[in-house]
Write a sequence for this structure.
């Protein structure tokens, strides 16, 4: 009796030799797993992984305390120099203005003919012993000055010698085309007085 071939049957039993179905994904599309897969970090051939610690054998960081001290000293010296220059400029500028004011006031009195006041208020006693009031007044009258005369200063120098302040003033009194040379020297410690005077027509 001939045996018929067996019909294929449907069965839910999986074949142990066939691969099983892929397990479904968990929530969010991720596979449910309790352990993250290990990933190997790759480094270049000559690079090392970053580390917050210094390598053994490295010298410790140098202290910059000495540098800050030097910079502080240099800054202090520069500040003192700047203050000294400022004081010197102010002192010289103040003395120059004072000498210019003295020369202006004296010349204004001379031009206006107030020789007595110019003589008494501005001249030093030592100069008064060499130049009397009468000689001074007669010399000023011989210059024929008038109110139209103007004054200009060519040179004004301020200096100090042995504690005495000195101001040298040189310039011109210009009167209707006539030029009169003036040379004054003021000297003193607290108050400047005229110690030298020269007024003569320019030739």
């Amino acid at each position: 009796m001939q045996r018929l071939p067996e019909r294929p049957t449907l069965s839910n039993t999986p074949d142990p030799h066939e691969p099983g179905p892929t397990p479904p994904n968990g929530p969010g599309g991720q596979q449910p797993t309790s352990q993250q897969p290990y990933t190997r970090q790759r480094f270049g051939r000559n690079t090392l992984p970053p580390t917050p610690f210094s390598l053994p054998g490295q010298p410790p960081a140098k202290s910059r305390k000495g540098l800050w001290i030097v910079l502080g000293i240099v800054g202090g010296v520069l500040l003192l120099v700047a203050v000294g220059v400022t004081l010197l400029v102010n002192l010289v500028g103040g003395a120059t203005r004072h000498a210019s004011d003295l020369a202006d006031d004296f010349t204004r009195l001379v031009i206006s003919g107030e020789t007595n006041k110019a003589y008494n208020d501005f001249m030093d006693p030592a100069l008064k012993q060499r130049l009397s009031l009468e000689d001074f007044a007669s010399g000023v009258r011989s210059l024929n000055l008038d109110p139209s005369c103007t004054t200009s200063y060519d040179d004004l120098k301020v200096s100090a010698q042995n504690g005495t302040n000195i101001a040298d003033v040189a310039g011109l009194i210009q009167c209707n085309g006539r030029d009169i040379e003036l040379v004054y020297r003021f000297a003193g410690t607290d108050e400047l007085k005229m110690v030298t005077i020269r007024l003569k027509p320019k030739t």
Remarks:
- Strands lie at 150-161, 164-175, 178-188, 193-201.
- Helices lie at 65-111, 115-122, 125-130, 133-141.
